[in-house]
Amino acid sequence: MHTAKFLGLALALSAAFSAHAQNYPSKPVRIIVPFAPGGATDIVTRIVGQKLGEVWGQTVVVDNRAGAGGNIGADLAAKGTPDGYTLFMPSGSVMTANVHMYRKIPFDPVKDFVAITNVASGPQIVVVSMSVAAKNVKELIAFAKSKPLTFGSAGVGTQTHLAAENFLFSAGINATHVPYKGEGPALTDLVGGQIQLVTPNLSAAIGFVNSGKIRALAVTSKERAPQVPNVPTVAETIPGFENLGWFGLVAPAGTPKAVIAKIHADTVKVLRSADVRKRFDELGMVPVGNSSAEFAKAMKEESARWAKVIRERKLQVN
Questions:
Q1: CB burial of residue 176 (10 Å; 0-12, 13-18, 19+)
Q2: In the beta sheet, which residues pair with residue 215?
Q3: Which regions of 193-300 does DSSP assign to beta strands (E)?
Q4: Which of 110, 127, 154, 186 is such that its CA lies 20 to 30 A from the CA of 39?
């Protein structure tokens, strides 16, 4: 008797979730971005969010909540109602590195979220202020060994911070870190000459590079990026170097599986559309669209790698 009641309840709940998914979304959807406008995470979210809005026939609101290397936005998203109307678009570092970088964070990247899909990935680019005389990586190394160097990032523990740490370590040079609340503000200060170096995502910096406001020295991918074909790779000077970033979509833990499946399917559909692929290509981004299980597995593996790097290089902060 009890078993029958349990099965009946389970079937009723399943039917309710399925109906909810079929009607989803019936109101505006918010995607929280843990960085300031103008950075790669923000750019990717706005491109995908606009297309999802068209597919859903609902407004998709991009909510920028910057600070603490992405932890402020992540905490807000983790506490969101798990109904599919609050989503989170972090860069990879927020989900895989911050738990090791910071001694204490207000969210659990594994327990508090459910993976939907990795949306896009792409390289970073080593760029300097026009006031820096270096024209290539070799000259930058010499410059950094002769005088103090400052580098900006989207915040402590972010992809841009860790990309810079990887680059500086591999190049055998030191620089003083100046964290911002996003790539946008860091690039603005780089243009103004307040800092000298940034390793932003290519998608965030390409406009500044093409307009001649900053100088590109190298990209962090194994091969040259077709968007900036005259810019060499870091590996051409430092053999074996590679550093890539990614941006994924997750939801608060407890969001119904049927809703997650709907969001996943629609996001993959958007990523396969010709106009989104064209826009990503212009920015040096590659659409991904893997399964939720594949995405969760990849984050777990990357988290283990960052734990080792952060421990060995003593990058942990309070």
A1: exposed
A2: 128
A3: 197-198, 214-219, 244-252, 286-287
A4: 110
Residue-wise DSSP of 81-116: -SSSSEEE--BHHHHHTHHHHBS--SS-TTTSEEEE
Label residue 172 by pLDDT band (50, 70, 90).
very high
Structure tokens at 282: 């212009």
| pLDDT tens per residue across span 235-283 | 999 999 999 999 999 999 999 999 999 999 999 999 999 999 999 999 9
Strand ordering across the sheet containing 214-219: 176-179, 150-153, 197-198, 125-129, 214-219
Question: What is the separation, in whole angstroms, between the first and last Cα of the chain?
Answer: 55
E strands in the chain: 29-33, 60-64, 86-88, 113-123, 125-129, 150-153, 176-179, 197-198, 214-219, 244-252, 286-287
Q: Which two tokens stand for residue 159?
A: 């992809």
CA distances to 22, 260, 295 from 266, rounded to whole Å, are 12, 10, 16
What is the pLDDT at residue 1?
A: 45
- Coil, helix or strand at residue 249: strand
- Give the model's pLDDT for residue 312: 87
pTM, whole model, 2 decimals?
A: 0.89
Distances in Å between the Cα of 200 and the Cα atoms of 10, 187, 271 are: 48, 8, 23
Contacting residues for 5 by C-beta, under 8 A, at least 6 apart = none
- 263, 84 in Cβ contact below 8 A? yes
